[in-house]
Design brief:
Length: 557
């Protein structure tokens, strides 16, 4: 049987005008700014003007990712459509895809099969220009910083201690390390420099955590761009860049309204990486989804040790959000990979490999229930090759933790395949919960990192390199020690070693350095070889993407 590709399914499904979706969501015309027929921005003034109470907040997260795939975004969209199918008023809130992975190897972030947000081509390519605005604001700050030094350096900035990088939303390893300002005195001050991908930039994190224009400007002003010769931090506020940066971001800050294939309203807004930044869509979009829907379904990037941890410990803490239920997405195929099975063998029943991989799922579920004190359901994306014996083994192991398992077939059936999951989520949302964080803010930087490593990753200890210890001492002296910690770690393991699959034990996490993202409001702890600028693979997805004479795009997943 030949399956349609994601783009073929999306292009074959008629879309409703975005004005009709706005009516479903209860968005008045006065808040709408249309971008063509099928997408619009919604003015953040709606949040101030509305006196409606907040709906239930549902987080969709997943097991540790593998090349076999888990389908977290697909499940998020299918769950929202499932809730709609059982008669609930629901709005979904997702991240925008980065162009880098779209043209690289990972693909987009618009869901898959019959659980997608559309227009998927627009969402994956430029969309409403938010990421370009974020890149422009980032690079304006970089230009003003270098210009300040060139024009006499009144702030006494040490060019060797500049921490701010330029950015571009593309996988381009050539730009990781550059030397610029060459060509003689009139062309700037020569220095070593580098680029981040836009989604790894602090502007993206600031953008997604800001609750208003005023809050955005306050966060921008706090961004540390470097240090003076006498070791004092220099901020964007010191450079006078904040007003112009905010002017570039004011329209981008309005959430983007689109729709699922089944006409469920969806906000797609912001997109920080979850292995480097906090990996969640914007606070404004999430709050808008909760204001408009009785149920707001959102997701966090990568596995629950990264995306969910940061959603709960950083985003919920800063935005005052209290989740009502968590969905943990898993596949039998991915669990068998965690149990040591080769990707080429995943179509065969193997209860031994599955049993060896299931502890990865159980650790994530235990974290949600026992560390964060939230109700949880496991959603298993069922593949045709999954046997009843394999499914029953997963159900049995989760039952021992007091967690239900629901089979999800949203990729093939859309909302119909998510109705059983929707019923369980509604049940969980009615249960009281005692939501807790994995650490409190009044501990030291080291104590917060150790709490995450021990309580969430289940590691034995943390090793701080001399460079990390020195920087922690400096940031503590500067007063940056009472803010959350954002771990930069491989997404492929609970540990900082991507080869340690499953539920490793007895490991130590090494923190090689820390840096402050003062605008975002967190300390970044760098572990392993985390890169803030990916590269393209040998055969990038860009090779398959094309557009015909009528403007119809092909090859996009």
């Amino acid at each position: 049987m030949a399956y349609l590709s994601d783009i073929e399914i999306a292009q074959a499904t008629p879309m409703q005008p975005i004005t009709e979706i706005a009516k479903v969501a209860g968005v008045d015309d006065k808040y709408m700014e249309q971008y063509g027929r099928y997408k619009a921005k919604v003015d953040y003034a709606l949040l101030k003007d509305s006196d409606r109470g907040n709906g239930k907040l549902i987080l969709v997260t997943a097991i540790t990712p593998t090349p076999a795939g888990e389908g977290k975004t697909t499940t998020t969209i299918g769950l929202a459509d499932g809730l709609k199918k059982i008669g609930k008023n629901v709005v979904v809130a997702l991240r925008e895809p980065s162009l880098g992975p779209v043209f690289g190897v990972k693909g987009g972030a618009a869901g898959g099969g019959y659980a997608q947000v559309v227009p998927m081509e627009d969402i994956n390519l430029h969309f409403t220009g938010d990421f370009h605005a974020i890149g422009a604001a980032n690079n304006l700050l970089a230009a003003m910083l270098d210009n300040h030094i060139y024009q006499g350096n009144a702030l006494n900035i040490d060019p060797r201690r500049i921490t701010w990088k330029r950015c571009v939303d593309m996988n381009d390893r050539q730009l990781r390390f550059v030397t610029d300002g060459l060509g003689g005195r009139v062309n700037g001050v020569p220095r070593e420099d580098g680029y981040d991908i836009t989604v790894a930039s602090e502007i993206m994190a600031v953008f997604c955590l800001a609750s208003s224009i005023t809050d955005l400007k306050e966060r921008l002003s706090r961004i540390v761009v470097g240090y003076t010769y006498d070791e004092k931090p220099v901020t964007a506020g010191d450079l006078g860049a904040v007003g112009a940066m905010a002017a570039l971001l004011k329209d981008a800050l309005k959430p983007n309204l689109v729709q699922t294939l089944e006409g469920t309203p969806a906000f797609v807004h912001g997109g920080p990486f979850a292995n480097i930044a906090h990996g969640c869509n914007s606070v404004i979009a999430t709050k808008m989804a909760m204001k408009l829907g009785d149920y707001a379904v959102t997701e966090a990037g990568f596995g629950a040790d990264l995306g969910a941890e940061k959603f709960l410990d950083i985003k919920c803490r800063m935005a005052g959000l209290n989740p009502d239920a968590v969905v943990m997405v898993a596949t039998v195929r991915a669990l068998k990979m965690h149990g040591g099975m080769a990707k080429t063998e995943l179509g065969n029943e193997n209860l031994v490999a599955l049993e060896a991989g299931i502890p990865n799922l159980l650790r994530h579920v235990s974290n949600i229930k026992d560390v964060y004190k939230l109700p949880c359901v496991v959603a298993v994306n069922r593949f045709p090759t999954d046997t009843d014996a394999e499914i029953n083994l997963v159900i049995e192991k989760c039952k021992a933790l007091g967690v239900n398992v629901v089979l999800s077939t949203v990729w093939a059936e859309g909302g119909k395949g998510g109705m059983a999951l929707a019923e369980e989520v509604v049940r969980l949302c009615e249960q009281p919960n005692d939501f807790s964080f994995s650490y409190e803010l009044d501990g030291t930087i080291e104590e917060k990192i150790e709490a995450i490593v021990r309580r969430v990753y289940r590691g034995d200890a943390v090793n701080f390199t001399p460079a990390a210890k020195k920087e922690i001492a400096r940031l503590t002296a500067l007063g940056y020690d009472k803010i959350p910690v954002c771990m930069a770690k491989t997404q492929y393991s609970f540990s900082d070693d991507m080869t340690k699959l499953g539920a490793p034990e007895g490991f130590t996490v090494t923190v090689r350095n820390v840096k402050v993202s003062a605008g975002a409001g967190f300390i970044v702890a760098l572990t392993g070889d985390i890169m803030t600028m990916p590269g393209l693979p040998k055969a990038p997805a860009a090779l398959k993407i094309d557009v015909d004479e009528d403007g119809k795009i092909s090859g996009l997943f």
